[in-house]
Specification:
CATH topology: Arc Repressor Mutant, subunit A
Number of domains: 1
Helix content: 55-70%
CATH superfamily: Winged helix-like DNA-binding domain superfamily/Winged helix DNA-binding domain
CATH class: Mainly Alpha
Shape: globular
Radius of gyration: 19 Å
Structural class: mainly alpha
Oligomer: single chain
Number of strands: 2
Number of helices: 7
Strand content: 5-15%
Order of helices and strands: HHHHHEEHH
């Protein structure tokens, strides 16, 4: 029995009580939310030993995977899929800890960029084995074909979600 069973029962009952309530899309949205919460909570447990949380990890990883010399906070917010205030708070903390630095964009000195410091890169490389192991455990649920199919389906759903948000 999954903790999600009670949620599924409530969705089913809502559909029975209000027949035009779309059961299948509601299930998909709730499943994505439940999975996201589990991933977030589990990542927090793994990252705690490094003095980090999942939001810190998302910001650090987007900077670690950045090919250019830095990113604006807006670019970082979009890449990490976090709220602006949250990214600003995390950036302040990571800067205070010496893992991230702010500097003027050499092409436009009015813009501020952020990047990892050498200490920040070393920290990422310290926790990457633990996080890679966790990600591999999630990935083990599917074979390569299923993984590619699920990725394509989730990207399509993300595109729809982004369009709905733009339209509102």
């Amino acid at each position: 029995m999954s903790r999600f069973d009670a949620t599924e029962n409530r969705i089913n009952l809502t559909h029975q009580r209000f027949s035009s309530y779309p059961r299948e899309p509601a299930m998909l949205v709730r499943l994505v939310k439940a999975i996201s919460q589990h991933v977030h909570d589990t990542a927090n447990l793994v990252l705690r030993q490094y003095g980090l949380n999942h939001t810190d990890y998302n910001v650090l990883m987007m900077l670690y995977g950045c090919q250019q010399e830095g990113m604006t906070v807006t670019q970082l917010r979009d890449a990490a899929a976090e709220k602006s205030a949250n990214v600003t708070r995390v950036c302040n903390i990571l800067c205070d800890r010496g893992w991230m630095a702010r500097f003027a964009d050499p092409r436009d000195r009015r813009r501020v960029l952020v990047s990892l410091t050498p200490e920040g890169e070393a920290l990422v490389e310290q926790f990457l084995p633990s996080m890679s192991s966790l990600l591999n455990q999630y990935g083990a649920a599917f074979d390569a074909r299923e993984t590619a199919q699920l990725e394509a389906l989730l990207k399509r759903l993300l595109g729809v979600a982004e369009q709905i948000e733009r339209d509102l």
